[in-house]
Design goal:
Length: 245
């Protein structure tokens, strides 16, 4: 398994069921060394308040040997690629994952989804696009893979898309992995855990990587240092407390 998980939700997103402490305890059990807490952006109905994100500065960077990244799963809001994370919220973030969610951006057509996703990547604010294989939001896969490589944004393989969320995602996810491979971009793996018990679960993502012969040197989760270097390149902000990772 890989020791980095980049997508999970806590009880701050009220349709999830675990705390930060729960995730740390599970990380110690399953070998995760670095994790990103990415609760939903505030435009979602059950998301935490703006203050939740601004106040992430009170979190320790390391808890019992596990590195913690302060993150968000923001919502792509419109064709301009705007997301519900800006100003002091953005200043507080180590990592910004962003994607489509029906309460904020209702499904439309492939051209609209593709344009909005590429605009979000071009904004410079987004590091990872979440579950781009969602069949409810068809996109031009070669176009988004090329844009992701151009803007140094990772596209996510989301393990929950193969289990209990976004039914029918697998063919799109396989095509996305192949397109990112050919475009020379990055893939990020996320468990999209809503309970700590699935932290680090990437079994379906790894199967897709094998099926398309995706190069391991372009998977962000392989080592904590690879992910931290990627973020430092994108943000210009090294995280000194995580240097040991």
């Amino acid at each position: 398994m890989y020791p980095v998980d980049l997508h999970m939700h806590t009880v701050a997103s009220t349709h999830a069921y675990s705390t930060l402490r729960d995730y740390v305890l599970q990380a110690q059990t399953c070998g995760i060394r670095l994790l990103a807490i990415t609760d939903h952006g505030p435009d979602m109905a059950d998301a935490p308040h703006y203050w939740h994100f601004v106040n992430m500065r009170v979190w320790p960077r390391m808890i019992d040997g596990v590195g913690i990244l302060r993150g968000i799963e923001a919502n792509i809001k419109n064709l301009a690629g705007e997301i519900d994370c800006s100003g002091p919220m953005m200043d507080a973030m180590d990592i910004v994952v962003a994607g489509f969610h029906e309460p904020v951006f209702p499904p439309q057509d492939s051209d609209t989804h593709t344009a909005a996703m590429i605009a979000a990547m071009a904004s410079g604010q987004v590091h990872i696009i979440s579950h781009p294989g969602n069949p409810r939001y068809p996109v031009d896969i070669p176009a988004i893979a090329a844009a992701a490589a151009r803007h140094n944004v990772a596209l996510e393989l989301n393990n929950s898309s193969f289990t209990h969320s976004r039914k029918g995602s697998e063919p799109n996810c396989r095509a996305i992995a192949a397109a990112v491979r050919d475009a020379g971009g990055w893939l990020a793996l996320g468990s999209d855990s809503h309970t700590a018990f699935t932290l680090g679960h990437f079994e379906h993502c790894l199967r897709i990587l094998r099926e398309v012969d995706f190069p391991e040197d372009r998977v962000l989760n392989v080592t904590p240092r690879r992910l931290l270097n990627f973020l430092e390149l994108r943000t210009g902000k090294p995280i000194a407390e995580l240097a040991e990772l």
